[in-house]
From TrEMBL:
Protein name, per record: Nuclear transport factor 2 family protein
SnoaL-like domain span: 46-170
Signal peptide: none
Pfam families found in the cross-reference section: SnoaL_3
Species: Polaribacter marinivivus
InterPro entries (UniProt xref): NTF2-like_dom_sf (IPR032710), SnoaL-like (IPR037401)
Cited SUPFAM superfamilies: NTF2-like
Length: 175
């Protein structure tokens, strides 16, 4: 009788242990890994990209800006399709920068929405461009003041935010 109780107790112990291990395995298989994303930090990273681009333009250079854009990023300005960012630099902004004495932004505001792996920005600003005078052409230095707005879509690629779409427009400020 004592042997039967011992065997029964051993079998019962194995059944309980086996049941617990199966339960752990099921819980392990059905658990969902949570990834915590710090949206505030992501917004700051996006805004850093936009600031780097703005700073380059204010410094009258495109140096270092190509890494801020995807290779096939599209650029729209004032209702015109400029093409890729490379097209925009080669045929529009790049040559323009050579005619500028200065380009400064003021009253700058940015609003950023992050919805991984994409983000969306809206920028509002005033800008002042001082065009160089050209004696040979008989033109004098002049100042242009405008109010601008820009929207951009960025994508997080390999851990870095890159601009994939940019659309800017402006209107001259009336004196």
């Amino acid at each position: 009788m004592e042997l039967k109780k011992s065997v029964l107790l051993i079998l019962l112990s194995f059944a309980i242990i086996s049941s617990c291990k199966n339960k752990e395995k099921v819980e392990e298989e059905t658990s969902i890994k949570e990834v915590v994303i710090d949206i505030k930090s992501e917004k700051q990273l996006v805004e850093n990209v936009m600031k780097s681009y703005k700073d380059a333009i204010q410094n009258l250079t495109t140096e270092g800006t190509f890494e801020l854009f995807t290779p096939n990023a599209t650029v729209f300005e004032q209702g015109k399709v400029e093409g890729t960012y490379k097209d925009y630099i080669d045929h529009h902004l790049g040559p323009e920068l050579g005619h500028f004495k200065s380009f400064t932004f003021s009253d700058y505001e940015i609003h950023t929405t992050v919805n991984l792996p994409y983000s969306y920005t809206t920028e509002n600003y005033l800008y002042t461009i001082v065009l160089k005078g050209n004696e040979a052409k008989g033109t004098q230095e002049r100042t242009i003041e405008s109010k601008g707005v820009a929207t951009s879509i960025l994508q997080k690629i390999d851990g870095r935010w890159k601009i994939m779409h940019s659309h800017t427009s402006f209107r001259k400020i009336r004196s």
